[in-house]
Write a structure and sequence with these properties.
Number of helices of chain B: 8
Number of domains of chain A: 2
Oligomer: heterodimer
Distance between the termini of chain A: 57 Å
Mean pLDDT of chain B: 76
Helix content of chain B: 55-70%
Order of helices and strands of chain B: HHHHHHHH
CATH architecture of the largest domain in chain B: Orthogonal Bundle
Shape of chain B: globular
CATH topology of the largest domain in chain B: Arc Repressor Mutant, subunit A
Number of domains of chain B: 2
Structural class of chain A: alpha+beta
Order of helices and strands of chain A: HHHHEHHEEEEEE
CATH class of the largest domain in chain A: Alpha Beta
CATH architecture of the largest domain in chain A: 2-Layer Sandwich
Structural class of chain B: mainly alpha
Largest sheet of chain A: 7 strands, antiparallel
CATH topology of the largest domain in chain A: Phosphorylase Kinase, domain 1
Helix content of chain A: 25-40%
CATH superfamily of the largest domain in chain B: Winged helix-like DNA-binding domain superfamily/Winged helix DNA-binding domain
CATH class of the largest domain in chain B: Mainly Alpha
Low-confidence stretches of chain B: 64-85, 149-157
Shape of chain A: globular
Distance between the termini of chain B: 26 Å
Number of strands of chain A: 7
Chain lengths: 208, 157
């Protein structure tokens, strides 16, 4: 047995996920359709376990004919899916995880330059954000499977930690309405500006 | 193996792929959500590992990952002093994901090259090549920065 192997085993042993992390993952994973994570297909497109049982051929043919028609009908009749809930859950999950910034700087242009795969500006236009919050840094993340920026900030008057997410408001994200939502102890505020969706998350008691 | 143990095992494996704890957590959560939705359960372990692997490489290929620090460069804060370069964390960060993955599965999980090949869809010889390269790179860098230390040739299964 080589020393390298021993060190490697020890390396991974020391990086075990703690109980809180396991709970967090299981809770988020079991939350169902609302917790559709980046990269997933979305609950509406996921086949239920029962639906995968073998079906008679005739039924399959009928389903093949009817499904596109039904899908078209549903598409016409229903409003676009409400993404606020899934976005709030994604943001709450990321907030609880507390991932560190990869680019640490208090200047938007430095963070923007560091996150060079982003083809949109991360600079918020709202005076309140620029005035009341201090930028600490940023990292890549994703919102609803779209490449996004996660900016770490502190509220200047209270020192409380906030996260600001910026993602291009394209496709369904362009339809996300402005507003705020409370999830557990987190207040999540959403707004659109200049073709981008902004999501600000911070303590519910913080009154952002 | 219950769900908690599966999540822990999945996380360790995801960490071998991403080399970033936060990204490993994301990966396991996404895989777990997918398996719960599709099958109503998390296991078996092999399916969890395959789901994690597919998600990682899909995302990686799309360039949406994670691997923020280029693999051939030192992570921020570790450049410079040789002592820092002895750190296994840094050395592992220099390996390609498939090399790190193969090494993890072989050394920590006890998979044979054959089994790793089945999981990754690659021939056994390719896996052996990954393992050999990974061990050589780890050992060479360690020896380079610690010239007086004894050499321990890596053993392959």
């Amino acid at each position: 047995m080589s020393t390298t192997d021993d060190k490697l085993r020890q390396h991974y042993r020391e990086r075990e996920l703690d109980d809180a992390g396991v709970d967090r993952i299981l809770a988020a994973a079991r939350e169902g359709e609302g917790a559709a994570p980046p990269g997933s297909q979305g609950a509406a497109q996921r086949p239920a376990a029962a639906a995968r049982r073998p079906l008679p051929k005739l039924l399959l043919v009928a389903a093949a004919v009817m499904l596109p028609l039904l899908a078209g009908l549903v598409f016409m009749l229903l409003p676009s899916p409400d993404l606020v809930g899934p976005i709030v859950k994604e943001v709450a999950y990321n907030y609880a995880k507390g991932s560190p910034s990869d680019i640490r700087s208090g200047r938007y242009e430095v963070v923007q330059a560091g996150l060079d795969r982003l083809d949109f500006s991360i600079l918020p236009l709202r005076d309140r954000v620029l005035r009341d919050f201090e930028l600490l840094g940023g990292r890549y993340c994703s919102i609803q499977d779209k490449l996004a920026a996660q900016l770490a900030m502190t509220r200047k008057d209270t020192g409380e930690a906030y996260l600001l997410y910026v993602v291009p408001a394209e496709g369904e994200l362009a339809k996300v309405p402005e507003g705020s939502s409370i999830k557990d102890d987190l207040r999540v505020e959403l707004w659109q500006d200049d073709g981008r969706l902004f999501v600000l998350a911070g303590p519910a008691a913080g009154g952002s | 193996m219950d769900d908690r143990e599966l999540i822990r095992a999945g996380y360790r494996y995801a960490l071998s792929l991403t080399h970033q704890p936060a990204d490993a957590e994301d990966l396991v959560q996404t895989a777990a959500a997918r398996l719960f939705d599709r099958n109503g359960e998390l296991g078996p372990r092999a399916l969890l590992f395959t789901t994690i692997r597919n998600l990682f490489y899909d995302t990686w290929r799309r360039g949406k990952v994670v691997a923020f620090t280029p693999l051939e460069e030192d992570p921020p804060g570790s450049a410079g002093h040789p002592a820092d370069r002895l750190d296994l964390e840094t050395l592992l960060g220099r390996l390609r994901p498939e090399e790190r993955e193969a090494l993890y599965l072989n050394v920590v999980e006890g998979y044979t090259a054959e089994e790793i090949g089945r999981l990754s869809g690659r021939p056994r010889n390719t896996v052996l090549s990954w393992l050999s390269r990974a061990r050589k790179r780890l050992q060479a860098t360690a020896d380079e920065t610690a010239p007086n230390s004894a050499k321990h040739p890596a053993k392959e299964r």
